[in-house]
Design a protein that fits this description.
The chain has about 550 residues and is an alpha/beta fold. The chain is built from 25 helices and eight strands. The strands form two sheets. Strands 1-2-5-6-7-8 form a six-stranded parallel β-sheet. A two-stranded antiparallel ribbon has the order 3-4.
């Protein structure tokens, strides 16, 4: 229609109008369509399972009692069966009705606005092929998927999200089953044999620490790449990173170049969240620089042989074995500290402003999945954000020191110089290992255990706060010592003077906010406060949280 207007204007002496506002409008439509930005839909796999269980129960099939393999077989048969599945929607729960309404809203958006308005449907906590087939079945129920001898139509990409270390480990076998599944093959053919795979940094790091998470993600991408190549699938990884190092954050250029060889496949998708958006895109010049860095990293990584290092090729098995061992020791140390002592959640609740953070209007989801006092039910974002506010920055380093120490010391007090030389060589020559170590360097530089001790003084009883603080301080010092040993430096970030100076200049402006926040929290947690006094103190704490987050950066 716009092209017709352009042609008409140019044919009737309207070149000025055609080359002005109309030209700008055409360019915008070519760039953004009529939808401006593509929306991703995301839902937990358990919600899909509940919806299908309710619909199958109407015909006497106990879907929820079946194991994953049996569900996969049942769904495959239902998807391949001619016709649209029927059931009484009026008998479904409100949650299940909402799921079906969402699918119908997707269809309406694609039909009435633009087919690209919604492109991907992400399934949280994917752990089986059945989780993916459930979405395909729901698509069939709502007219978004149909298959016949003449044509197969599938309206959007189905995207698994592998989040925990266990799910990341199982991800290659899950995708392999799907690539061989007759129903899913029809979907893939309709979508141009394209598969988007999302990998989560936050939950894997919260579950097992930064080192184990980093290594699990790396290995999962290698195996998923091989499985996709074998099946002749055009894959793309969607990296669910957060702003802070404990959730996969850090310099994007180095992060892209540290990915496994061939895994990028000339395409990448990355989440940008919270303060990262304003830091990277609020100013036009900085936004352009951010996009240039990402683009140059992708171009460099995808030029054949540009990242080939014969030393990595020669030492791959030895380096991978070393990372396996470090990650295992690091995982054990992290789990022992975080999940092995019940007092840590009490310490976290009192030595950080987590309660106040949950009251702020800054999150897209509740702080907890379920209202309990268990660390397992707390979401990764507030977990990381709380530790950053109190200057412990625990998710960015905990477990790493013990993992590295065990590798170079074993059970002996003396250093194994051969193993230390191996780690230093890995740091110099392997971008994946160097990125991990450098990200931890950055986060160690932002930690301040003199200030963290002030937060620890808020914990009651004081004995519990003191004991846990001393334990965390000891592990922090150990991690710092091991990072300096591996990088062969005297001080953290000696090999990155600009970042070192930036943090040293910025911290003194943030530190007073931290001391003010401690005092505000102390006053707020006294019992004899009027409603107005409490409201004023809460508002002051909220301001301090925003200030500290802006000053430290990489916080959410």
């Amino acid at each position: 229609d716009l092209s017709l207007l352009d042609k008409s204007l140019r044919g009737h002496q309207g070149e000025l109008q055609a080359g002005g506002l109309l030209k700008d409008l055409i360019r915008n439509v070519e760039t953004f369509g009529f939808h401006l930005a593509t929306v991703d839909i995301r839902q937990h796999h358990a919600v899909h399972c509940m919806t299908i269980s309710e619909s199958f129960a109407q015909r006497g099939t106990p879907y929820s009692d079946l194991d994953a393999e049996a569900r996969e077989g049942l769904l495959t048969g239902e998807i391949l069966k001619p016709g649209v599945p029927s059931f009484d929607e009026s008998r479904l729960s409100a949650t299940s009705a909402e799921v079906l309404a969402t699918f119908r809203k997707i269809k309406r958006a694609q039909t009435e606005i633009d087919e690209h308005a919604i492109h991907s449907y992400v399934i949280s906590m994917t752990n089986s092929a059945a989780d993916m087939l459930e979405v395909l079945y729901l698509m069939k129920c709502t007219g978004l998927f149909s298959a016949s001898d003449r044509q197969t139509i599938s309206a959007f990409d189905i995207v698994p999200l592998f989040e925990t270390t266990k799910d990341l480990s199982a991800a290659p076998s899950v995708m392999e089953r799907l690539y061989q599944n007759n129903a899913y093959k029809l979907h893939l053919e309709s979508r141009g044999r394209r598969q988007e795979i999302m990998i989560g940094y936050s939950d894997s790091a919260k579950e097992g620490g930064i080192v184990a998470s980093h290594w699990a993600l790396y290995k999962a991408q290698r195996q998923l790449t091989k499985v996709s190549q074998t099946a002749n699938i055009n894959w793309m990884f969607f990296h669910g990173r957060g702003g802070t190092v404990g959730r996969g954050g850090g310099p994007e250029y180095e992060a892209i170049l540290s990915q496994p060889a061939h895994s990028l496949n000339a395409r990448i998708k990355i989440t940008e969240q919270g303060e990262v958006i304003s830091l990277k895109y609020a100013h036009p010049a900085i936004a352009q620089r951010s996009l240039e860095l990402t683009t140059s990293a992708m171009l460099t990584a995808n030029i054949p042989k540009s990242q080939f290092d014969p030393e990595l090729d020669r030492n791959r098995k030895e380096w991978f074995d070393a990372m396996d061992e470090i990650a295992e020791h690091s995982y054990s140390a992290y789990r022992c500290t975080v999940y092995g002592q019940k007092e840590l959640m009490q310490y976290f609740a009192q030595a950080t402003p987590i309660e106040e953070i949950t009251k702020m209007q800054i999150g897209s989801r509740p702080a907890k999945r379920v209202e309990t006092e268990r660390i397992e039910d707390l979401r990764a974002i507030p977990w990381t954000f709380g530790w950053m506010q109190s200057r412990h920055v625990l998710p960015g380093w905990l477990g790493a020191g013990e993992g590295l120490r065990k590798f170079v010391h074993g059970d002996a007090p003396a250093l194994n110089l051969k193993r230390l030389k191996l780690l230093r060589n890995m740091y110099r020559r392997w971008p994946t290992f160097r990125s991990l170590i450098d990200n931890m360097q950055m986060i160690l530089a932002k930690a301040d255990f003199a200030i963290a001790k002030e937060y620890a003084s808020l914990v009651e009883p004081g004995k519990t706060g003191g004991e846990i603080f001393r334990q965390l301080k000891s592990q922090f010092d150990q991690t710092r010592e091991m990072i300096l040993l591996v990088t062969d430096q005297k001080e953290i970030l000696d090999n990155n003077g600009m970042l070192q100076r930036s943090i040293q200049l910025r911290n003194p402006y943030v530190d007073p906010l931290s001391y003010i926040q401690v005092e505000l929290l102390r006053r707020l947690r006294t019992k004899n406060l009027s409603g107005s006094e409490r409201a004023d103190l809460e508002q002051a704490v909220f301001l301090s949280i925003n200030g500290i987050a802006a000053g430290l950066r990489n916080t959410g």
